[in-house]
Amino acid sequence: MVGKFTYLLWLAIFVWLPTLFLWLTNFDVLKRYKKTLGFCIFWALAFSVPWDILAIKTQIWSFPVEANIGLWFGGLPLEEYFFIVFVTFMVSTLALVLKNKFKEEKWRASRHI
Amino acid sequence: MASQSAYLITLLIFAVSAVTIEWTIGYGKLKKYIRLISGATFILWLGGLIGDNVALKWGCWVYNPERFLGIYIFGIPLETHFFALFVSIAITTATLAWSDFEEQGRPLIKGTFDEVVEKLKHFLTI
Question: Closest to B36 (Cβ–Cβ): which among A39, A43, A102?
Answer without folding.
Answer: A102
